[in-house]
UniProtKB/TrEMBL annotation:
One of its GO terms (cellular component) is plasma membrane. This is histidine kinase. One of its GO terms (biological process) is cellular response to phosphate starvation. InterPro entries: BphY/WalK/GraS-like, HATPase_C_sf, HATPase_dom, His_kinase_dom, HisK_dim/P_dom, HisK_dim/P_sf, Sig_transdc_His_kin-like_C. It comes from Polynucleobacter duraquae. Residues 25-59 form a coiled coil. Pfam families: HATPase_c, HisKA. The lineage of its organism: Bacteria, Pseudomonadati, Pseudomonadota, Betaproteobacteria, Burkholderiales. PANTHER family: PHOSPHATE REGULON SENSOR PROTEIN PHOR. Residues 165-372 form the Histidine kinase domain. It catalyses: ATP + protein L-histidine = ADP + protein N-phospho-L-histidine.
C-alpha cells in the first residue's frame, strides 16, 4: 500500500476514535451532570429534613439528648430546663441530687419555691443503639398528680359503694356493745357478771376499732416513704409478725427465699410486709391443724415473685371473682378489707397480685419490680 494511502487510513481511524471518544465524553458529562443534580437534590432534601427535625426537636416540650459513648453530641433547648449546665462535649450523668422514685427511670427533683420547697418528678427514657444513646427527659409531675387524684377518687367512690356494707359491719358489734353497756348500768348485777360483761364489751369495742383502722388504711392507702430494702428482709419481717399465730393453730409455715437474687426493692417496707401478712392470715384462716402454708420467693432480673399457697378447701368461683373487693369475705370474724388493702398496697408500688384456686387449695402471687440500680449481676 502506498504511503499516502496508509496516512489517509490512519487519519481516518484517528478521526473515528476521536468521534467515539467525544461521544462517550458527552455521555459521561451528561451522566455526571445528572448525578450532580441528584446529589444536589438529595442534599437539599437532607437539609430540609434536618431543618424540619431541628424544628421538631425544638418544639418538643421534653428534653432530648444524643450521646456518643456517653458524651453529649447534641441536645434540644428544652433539656436545659432540667440540666441548665449541659453542653455538647461533656459526659452525661444523672445529677446526684435527682433522687430515684419508687418507679425505675423516674426521679424526684427538689426546688426552692418562693414560699416553700417544691418537688417535681421527671421521667428519663434511654434507648441504646451501639455506641449511641438517645435520652428523653420529661416532667411528669402533673401526670402523677392526676393519677394519684384519680386513684383517690376511685377509693372514695368505692367507699361510697361500701356504705351499706359498712353499716352492716358496724351494726352488730355496736348493738352488742350497747347491750352489754346497758347491763353494766344495772345496779343489781354481781361483780363476776359485771366483769364478764365488761370483758365482752371491751372485745366488741376492739372489733370496732380494728374495723375503723382497716377502713382508714383502705381509704388513705399510700406509701409513706420508699426506701431501698432487701426482699428477704421484708419476707422475714412478715414471717416474724405472724409466726406465733401459726404456732397457736398448729399450722406449719414453710418459707423459701433461696431462689431470689440480691437486688433491692424501692418500697415502703412496713406496707409491703403488712400486705404479705394479710395474705398469710387469709391462708391461715382456712387451714387446719397439721396442714402447711407455703411461701416461696423467686426472681429474675426485673421482678420479685412471692407465691403463697395453702392446703385449704379453695375459693369458690363467685368469691374468686370479687376476692379483692372491699368486704368480700367468707369469714365470720373478718372485715373483708385485708386483701383489698393488700391489693392497693401492691399496685401502689407498681406491682401486681392475683389468686388462683383448685381442690388442693388457693395460690396467691405477688409481683414487685426491682430497683434497677441495686441489682448485682
Amino acid at each position: 500500500m502506498p504511503p499516502k494511502q496508509e496516512t489517509l487510513d490512519a487519519t481516518k481511524h484517528l478521526e473515528e476514535a476521536f468521534a467515539i471518544f467525544y461521544a462517550e465524553s458527552q455521555k459521561l458529562e451528561a451522566q455526571q451532570a445528572a448525578l450532580q443534580d441528584k446529589i444536589n437534590q438529595l442534599s437539599s432534601e437532607l437539609q430540609k429534613s434536618n431543618q424540619r427535625l431541628a424544628i421538631l426537636l425544638n418544639a418538643i416540650p421534653a428534653g432530648v439528648i444524643l450521646l456518643e459513648n456517653e458524651v453529649v453530641l447534641l441536645h434540644n433547648p428544652a433539656v436545659l430546663i432540667f440540666l441548665p449546665e449541659l453542653k455538647p462535649g461533656v459526659t452525661f450523668e444523672i445529677p446526684a441530687d435527682w433522687l430515684p422514685s419508687i418507679t425505675p427511670g423516674e426521679y424526684v427533683i427538689a426546688e426552692n419555691g418562693a414560699h416553700q420547697r417544691l418537688q417535681k418528678t421527671v421521667q428519663v427514657i434511654r434507648i441504646n443503639e451501639g455506641s449511641r444513646s438517645f435520652i428523653q427527659i420529661q416532667d411528669i409531675t402533673t401526670n402523677i398528680s392526676r393519677h394519684e387524684e384519680t386513684q383517690r377518687e376511685n377509693r372514695l367512690a368505692a367507699m361510697g359503694r361500701m356504705a351499706a356494707g359498712i353499716a352492716h359491719q358496724f351494726r352488730t358489734p355496736l348493738a352488742t356493745a350497747l347491750l352489754y353497756a346497758s347491763h353494766l348500768c344495772d345496779g343489781e348485777i354481781n361483780t363476776d357478771t359485771a366483769k364478764e360483761f365488761a370483758d365482752r364489751l371491751r372485745k366488741q369495742l376492739l372489733d370496732l376499732e380494728k374495723l375503723s383502722q382497716d377502713m382508714l388504711r383502705f381509704i388513705s392507702n399510700k406509701p409513706n416513704k420508699a426506701v431501698l430494702v432487701n426482699a428477704t428482709q421484708i419476707i422475714e419481717d412478715a414471717q416474724a409478725s405472724i409466726q406465733f399465730l401459726f404456732k397457736a393453730k398448729q399450722v406449719s409455715l414453710s418459707v423459701t427465699t433461696s431462689n431470689i437474687n440480691h437486688g433491692s426493692l424501692l418500697v415502703e417496707p412496713k406496707a409491703i410486709s403488712n400486705a404479705i401478712v394479710a395474705i398469710l392470715e387469709n391462708a391461715l384462716a382456712v387451714s387446719k391443724a397439721n396442714e402447711t402454708v407455703s411461701l416461696m420467693a423467686s426472681s429474675d432480673q426485673q421482678m420479685l415473685t412471692i407465691t403463697i399457697s395453702d392446703q385449704g378447701p379453695g375459693i369458690s368461683k363467685e368469691i374468686l371473682n370479687s376476692l379483692f373487693e372491699p368486704f368480700a369475705t367468707t369469714s365470720a370474724n373478718g372485715t373483708g378489707l385485708g386483701l383489698s388493702i393488700a391489693k392497693n398496697t401492691i399496685e401502689t408500688h407498681r406491682g401486681s397480685i392475683s389468686a388462683e384456686s383448685s381442690k388442693q387449695g388457693a395460690v396467691f402471687k405477688i409481683s414487685l419490680p426491682y430497683d434497677h440500680s441495686s441489682l448485682i449481676h
